[in-house]
Structures are given as structure tokens and as C-alpha cells.
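ok new one. same drill as before - C-alpha cells go in, u give me an amino acid for every spot. 446 of them this time. try not to just spam alanines like last time pls lmao
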């Protein structure tokens, strides 16, 4: 038997495999269990997982047939959306925002303009750039109780735990934002997300470091105001440090369907308000395998201490005793292009702050690892988090606040991805399947 299953939809523009190879864009499958043959359409390099459900076979011992599912823990090979925001080619180390290579964007386009690009799809005009920056700057201060919530935590509580709690509390102050199906409401909220995440990490930072909760009156770019609000006692922030911070924000602004973005899309798919959806993103980012790796890297570098201790660290990792933090990536199987840019920026920052000697330890780890077959065979290279923490440390940020800066950066991507998800009529509430492996029906003891 031969079943045709649906028809191919429009392809996605980009560098995905084209559907016009020599043969038709279809996958032919023979199910050995039933000896049936199926033809599945291939659309933009993908089959539709729901088509598999039509490939059925009788269930052993039951009077019914069951459709095939794909099993993919960790979503290693499952596309959950069509997106036109960020393109990654992990084998070649390519990252593009809305088509623009990251190497061209970094250092030339400001963080707020990058946020606009990610959200709207095009670079802002001069007028759009100015009015967007003005709209972000004009956002009212955080509701006062939010600062009180932050101050109610122990001062040694992890800043990401505090940020997560205080950010999710914002949902209670923005009832208007719950109308997520109204595009005007969604877009009106955008400047507030960007202003409040920066304001909130400053409140968390002041609480963490015992500084008084007085917003700093620093003017200038988004990054200048952020840096100024973290260190008001330093006065006007150094221009090189502002440039470096802005660059770090740009480099971490979006990375297609990473763990935290997937969390935002998944939580947001229930049509909850965006503050709650972004709280899901902050929680995911906190984890040491994701954004929390920047903190873990610097802790690891401090533990190693000197270049002489690097071989012992590498041997320990190879024995399976811990991971080399800041190395490896689900998508990049070559050098993460962001890590290369950050490594060069670190040298620039150290000219202002003084050289962080741990850079030599990091460079030695990279050199040893990239010559070692354990890392070479598994294609493990430095990722975005490997060098970023050294810059934050040089700027004077406490180690446990690094990931809060990442949250500011990634807010731009979360907003763009959330907006794209809400407007995408193919999207439904996120609800994966499972393979049930528990006990069959049984009765409670009488
Ligand atoms: N150190 C040592 N071994 C590693 C590392 C590492 N950093 N990363 C992966 N491996 C090994 C695994 O042990 C595994 O080896 P095996 O095949 O012998 O079992 C193999 O490489 C594949 O690893 P997976 O865990 O299957 O890779 P996955 O794609 O699931 O994980 C991740 C990606 C989480 C980034 C992983 O590389 C890791 O834990 N890195 C360290 C943490 C880190 O730096 N995270 C930040 C990532 S960037 C970001 O999220 C912003």
C-alpha cells in the first residue's frame, strides 16, 4: 500500500536545504511492521512530525493501532517553529541576525538598534532609532514594591534567584499586558521590557553589594546608563567599558531556539502574559549548562589559578570528573564566532582595567583542549561564555551577577521570538508527547 500524506507548504528562505534537488521533495518509508509504504512530503528540509502519526501499526495485545512518533529527548533534531530572526550554521561557525553576519553587527550597531532589528526585521532609520531609545528611556521607574521585594531577600541570595522572583512579580503590576492577542498591546510593552530588565538587575546588584537603592542619574546610551546604574560612585562610565558592555549585549542578544528562548516560547504558547513568559526564560538562563556557564567558567579559572595547573584540569575533565565550563555547544561544532569576538574585546577592556591574569589561564586551556583528541573528536570549542566572565570580572562585577547581564542581553531575543511566536498561526500550545514506560493498569490493595 502507498499513502500520500498531505502536501508541501511554502519553503523557508535562508540557507536551509532546498526542496528542489534531483528528485521530488518527499521521503519514502516502508514500515517493516506492516509492509506498508508511505510518502511524506519534505517542506523546507523537514518532514512534519504529525505526518508520522498516520504511519500506524497494531498495538501488541490490544485491539487498536497506534501512530508513529519521533523520540527526541533534548530536542536534538526537532524544529519547533519557522523563524526568520537568527540563522546559525554550527558546522561553519556562522551566526546572523536577520541575515546580517554577527562580525558586521558587533561593534557597529548599538544594542538597542540590534533589539529593534531582531524585533522588526530591519535596521531602524535614524528617526526610528532615536524614538525607540527615547521610548525606552521614558519608561517609568520600576514599581516601588518591586525594589522592596528585592530588598526582602538575604543579601547573599543568588542574584539570578532574586531577579527571577522580582521579574515574575512584575506580571502583577501589568494587567494590561495580559491581552497578548492584541498586537498594539504587545508592541506598546516592548520598551518597558528592555528598560525594566536593566533597571531590575541594577536594583538586584545594589542589594547584592550593599549599595543604597537610589537610581543613578546617568545619561547616554542604554549601555552607558546600565553601567552607570551599577557603579554610580564611578561617575560617568569609561567609554571603552561602555563599548565593551554594549558589544557583549549585542553578541548575546539572540541565538535562535536555545534553552531559555524555547522556555519563553513554550510558556508563552499558553497565552500567559509576557512577564511570566520571560520569567521562564530567566529561570532557564540561570542554569550552569546555559547562561549560568559564564559564572561557572570564572569559578573554574580561579580554582585552576595558574597555567601550570591547566593539564591537571584537562585530565580531570577527560576522566569524567566535571565538564570544561564554557566549552561545547549543541549547535556549534566549530569555534563559536561570538567567543572569538569576545576574546579580542577582553584585551581592549584590560587596557582600561588592567590585565586579568586569568586570561592567560583561559588561553592555555583553549590551546591544550583544542589539541586534545577528547575535545577534537567531540568537536568541543570555546562558547560565548568562555571569555565573557573575564570581562565582567575586570569591570568589577561580583561573580554571581554575570548571568544577570546575560539576561539583559537575551531579553532582546526573547521579545523578538515571543512576538514571532504569538503572530505565527502555525503555533499551538506547546505540548510534547511522551513514551510511557511505567507500569500497566494495576489495582490498589483492597
Ligand atoms: N566538557 C567536557 N565534555 C563535554 C563538554 C564539556 N564542556 N560538553 C560536552 N562534552 C562531552 C559529553 O560528555 C559527551 O561525551 P560522550 O559522547 O563521551 O558522552 C559529548 O561531549 C556530547 O555532549 P552532550 O552533553 O551530549 O552535548 P549537548 O549538546 O547535550 O550539550 C552543552 C551542550 C550543554 C553546552 C555542553 O557542551 C556543556 O555542558 N558545556 C559546558 C557548559 C557550558 O559551557 N554551557 C554554555 C553553553 S552556551 C549557552 O548556553 C549560552
Amino acid at each position: 500500500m502507498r499513502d500520500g500524506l498531505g502536501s508541501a507548504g511554502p519553503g523557508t528562505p535562508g540557507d536551509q536545504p532546498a526542496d528542489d534537488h534531483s528528485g521530488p521533495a518527499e521521503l519514502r518509508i516502508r514500515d517493516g511492521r506492516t509492509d506498508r509504504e508511505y510518502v511524506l512530503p519534505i517542506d523546507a528540509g523537514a518532514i512534519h512530525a504529525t505526518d508520522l502519526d498516520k504511519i500506524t501499526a497494531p498495538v501488541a495485545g490490544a485491539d487498536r493501532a497506534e501512530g508513529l512518533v519521533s523520540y527526541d529527548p533534548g530536542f536534538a533534531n526537532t524544529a519547533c517553529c519557522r523563524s526568520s530572526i537568527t540563522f546559525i550554521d554550527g558546522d561553519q561557525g556562522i551566526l546572523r541576525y536577520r541575515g546580517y553576519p554577527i562580525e558586521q553587527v558587533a561593534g557597529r550597531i548599538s544594542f538597542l538598534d540590534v533589539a529593534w532589528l531582531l524585533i522588526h526585521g530591519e535596521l531602524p532609520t535614524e528617526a526610528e532609532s532615536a524614538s525607540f531609545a527615547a521610548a525606552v528611556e521614558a519608561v517609568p521607574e520600576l514599581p516601588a514594591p518591586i525594589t522592596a521585594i528585592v530588598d526582602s531577600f538575604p543579601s547573599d541570595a543568588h542574584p539570578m534567584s532574586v531577579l527571577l522572583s522580582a521579574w515574575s512579580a512584575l506580571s502583577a503590576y501589568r494587567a494590561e499586558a495580559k491581552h497578548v492577542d492584541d498586537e498594539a498591546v504587545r508592541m506598546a510593552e516592548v520598551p518597558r521590557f528592555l528598560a525594566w530588565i536593566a533597571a531590575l538587575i541594577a536594583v538586584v546588584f545594589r542589594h547584592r553589594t550593599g549599595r543604597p537603592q537610589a537610581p543613578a542619574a546617568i545619561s547616554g546610551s542604554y549601555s552607558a546608563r546600565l553601567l552607570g546604574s551599577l557603579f554610580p560612585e564611578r561617575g560617568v562610565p569609561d567609554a571603552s567599558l561602555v563599548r565593551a558592555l554594549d558589544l557583549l549585549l549585542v553578541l548575546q542578544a539572540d541565538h535562535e531556539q536555545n534553552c531559555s528562548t524555547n522556555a519563553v516560547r513554550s510558556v508563552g504558547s499558553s497565552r500567559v502574559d509576557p512577564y511570566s513568559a520571560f520569567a521562564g526564560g530567566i529561570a532557564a538562563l540561570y542554569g550552569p549548562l546555559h547562561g549560568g556557564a559564564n559564572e561557572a567558567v570564572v569559578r573554574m579559572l580561579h580554582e585552576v589559578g595558574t597555567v601550570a595547573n591547566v593539564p591537571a584540569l584537562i585530565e580531570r575533565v577527560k576522566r569524567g570528573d566535571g565538564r570544561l565550563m564554557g566549552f561545547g555547544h549543541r549547535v556549534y561544532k566549530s569555534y563559536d564566532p561570538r567567543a572569538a569576538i569576545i576574546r579580542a574585546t577582553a584585551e581592549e577592556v584590560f587596557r582600561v582595567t588592567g590585565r586579568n591574569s586569568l586570561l592567560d589561564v583561559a588561553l592555555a586551556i583553549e590551546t591544550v583542549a583544542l589539541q586534545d583528541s577528547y575535545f577534537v573528536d567531540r568537536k568541543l570549542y570555546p562558547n560565548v561564555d568562555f571569555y565573557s566572565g573575564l570581562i565582567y570580572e575586570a569591570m568589577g562585577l561580583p561573580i554571581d551577577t554575570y548571568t544577570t547581564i546575560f539576561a539583559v542581553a537575551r531579553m532582546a531575543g526573547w521579545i523578538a521570538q515571543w512576538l514571532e511566536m504569538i503572530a505565527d498561526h502555525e503555533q499551538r500550545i506547546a505540548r510534547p508527547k511522551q513514551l510511557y514506560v511505567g507500569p500497566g493498569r494495576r489495582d490498589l490493595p483492597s
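Strands lie at 2-4, 26-31, 36-41, 56-58, 65-67, 86-89, 94-97, 100-101. and btw The chain has 18 helices and eight strands.
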